[in-house]
Design goal:
globular; binds zinc ion; TIM Barrel; alpha/beta; 14% strand; five-stranded mixed sheet; five-stranded parallel sheet
Amino acid sequence: MPSGLPNALTVDLEDWYHSVLEVEPSDWPRHEDRVASATERLLACLAERGARATFFVLGHVAERHPELVPAIEAAGHEIACHGYAHRLVYTQSPEEFRDDLHRSLSLLRGQAKTPIRGYRAAYWSITRACPWALDILADEGLVYDSSLYPTRTSLYGVPDAPRRPFRLRTPGGRELAEFPPSVLRFPFRNLPFAGGIYLRLLPYWFVRWAMRRFRRAGRPALVYIHPPEFDPDKPRLPLRFGARVLHYARLDAFRVKVPRLLADFAFITLGELLDQYAANGSLPTWSFGSRKW
Ligand SMILES: [Zn+2]
């Protein structure tokens, strides 16, 4: 196993309302567009600390802001695909999923200089309910995925998936490299810590301790962030309590926590990490039919 690999940083490039399940896509035009300024702040933060990231760009954002993909690429980051309309994969038919993916990839391939190699599903929603999506990703020329979350929640999760990068065999016998977000193993549940609500709510000392555990094990950690998390002034929607916490809790602290994380650890893109795995060693293989390991 390769050791000493840097960590990978990923960004889901979407606006503040895209990931609010309560907001229907038909209502998106009514909401204030804030993604460009939030992305600008995030890019400045990354540049200051010399961190590179993979940006999983939502097609709807690429369509409305065609200037963003070239600017992100010019800053040294990788462009990857987050679908077009931010829909749960397991609520779509294979045909709907393929159309959404294709629409997004066409936009991104028209804007990016380098090939699009990776995909992340909205809400981590490739689960045991829709393994067919993996074959569609391979059909469309993608080589890696980062949609399987090795934990269990009401919305997503493949709790028995490996907690480290691996080679994922699809139901159709194809292969994709899979990069799961980092989780800590506890007796009854894997604990996420490396992104979203988990990264925002957990104290920084705990996150740093968890990241160091990955380093000691010779494994790269995978962190994920969203530009709206750098936008504490984003509009407040009248959501139920849980959704309010999910979207608005600890946004102020996040703007301090992420720079500390970038100062304490080195980060590269998933594409670079994949190339390093290819050069230094092989990834273990796993499929949905595999036993837990
Ligand atoms: Zn998203």
